[in-house]
Amino acid sequence: MKWIKDKEFIRGNVPMTKFNIRVLTLAYLNISLGDRLLDIGAGTGSVSIEGALQGARVWAIEKEEEGIELIDKNCKKFNAEINLIKGVAPKDLPDLKFSKCFIGGSGGRMEEIFKYLNANLEMDGIVCGNFITIKNLNQFINLLKEYKYKDIEVELIQSSSMDDIGLMKGSNPIFIGKGVKI
Hints:
The chain is of the alpha/beta class. The chain has a single domain (15-180), classed as Vaccinia Virus protein VP39 (Rossmann fold, 3-Layer(aba) Sandwich). Helix content is 31%, strand content 30%. The protein is built from five helices and nine strands; from the N terminus they run αβαβαββαβαββββ.
C-alpha cells in the first residue's frame, strides 16, 4: 500500500489531516475493500482520497468552496473517485447507510451528526474523529457513550518533523477518538 505524503496534495487555506494523523486515523477506521466511508468536514480531501485508494466508496462533505475545489483537484491528481457534497452535515447528507465515518470537522453540530449516524451508520460501523480541543473530544466521547458505542479508544498524538534545514518543527497535538456502533 502506498501512502500519500502531505507535500503531494494540492494545498490551500483549508485544513488538512496531516500524514501521521491520517495514517493512524485510517488504521482506526480499518478501511476495507467495499466499505462505504463518510468523511464529514473533508477539507482538502486527504482522508477521503486515501480511503478511496484503499478500496472504499467515499462520500465527502465540505462547506467551504475552496475545500470543494481542492478536493476536486486532488481527486483528479490521484485518480480517486469520491462522491463530493458541498454543504453542511448532517443537513445535506444523503439518506444512505455507511460502514465507516470520519469526523474531521463538525461545525458545532456534533449532536446532530450523532443523530444522523444513529440512523445511517451500520451496526459494527466505526466512527473516528480528530480533535484539537478537549471540549470537542469530551463531547465526542460523551456522545459515543450516550449512543452506547463499544470499543471506545482515544489517543493523543504529538509529532515533530524535520524541515529542509534540519530543524524539528512541532505539529499541534491531535486527539484521535474512535467507537464501534452496537
